[in-house]
Design goal:
Blueprint: H1 3-28, E1 33-35, E2 37-38, E3 43-47, E4 52-55, E5 58-61, E6 64-68, E7 76-80, E8 86-90, E9 101-102, E10 107-108, E11 115-116, E12 122-124, E13 133-139, E14 142-146
Parallel strand pairs: 1-6
Antiparallel strand pairs: 2-3, 3-14, 4-5, 6-7, 7-8, 8-13, 9-10, 10-11, 11-12, 13-14
The protein binds FE2/S2 (inorganic) cluster (FES).
């Protein structure tokens, strides 16, 4: 095999390996999910420290926590917004009630592709109705989510 051809094959394999590595790294990033506690009738409690974590010993902040509880049929995406307030959104698409997937920036519907902002606003059709945020209240280092 010529040196040139061998070089091309090895470069291609190295590139493919690197791409696979990048793909697996991004796939490894998980969204933090928490089972909330009850704070009374139709109230869930999410501790604020769920938005904090350590990375290589350094304190970091995440902007999204997914909240589950046995009493709710759809998870709730709780975003910490840039202004320091919180948005709690039922992860049910307003188009046809599919479960939404949450990323750090948007909620995406796997059924027909609708997208919603961190505050529930429709960004992409076919959904035409915004997600209605749950009322939240922050006190004593926790978020109360009123269902
Ligand atoms: Fe979500 Fe259709 S159910 S876009």
């Amino acid at each position: 095999m010529s040196d040139r051809r061998e070089f091309i094959i090895k470069s291609g394999l190295a590139c493919a390996g690197g791409m696979l590595g990048l793909l697996s790294l991004s796939a490894c990033k998980t969204i933090h999910t928490v089972t909330a506690s009850e704070g009374g009738k139709n109230v869930l409690i999410l501790p604020l420290n769920e938005f904090s974590y350590l990375s290589k010993g350094e304190p970091k902040q995440r902007n999204l926590v997914i909240v589950n509880h046995a009493t709710i049929p759809f998870s709730i995406a709780v975003y910490k917004l840039e202004d320091g307030t919180y948005s709690a959104l039922k992860m049910m698409c307003t188009h046809n009630a599919c479960d939404l997937n949450a990323t750090e920036t948007v909620l995406v519907c796997p059924c027909h592709g609708s997208e919603f902002s961190q505050t529930g606003k429709v960004l992409s059709a076919p959904a035409s109705v915004n997600l209605a945020p749950y009322r939240t209240e922050v006190s004593d280092n926790r978020i109360k989510i009123y269902l």
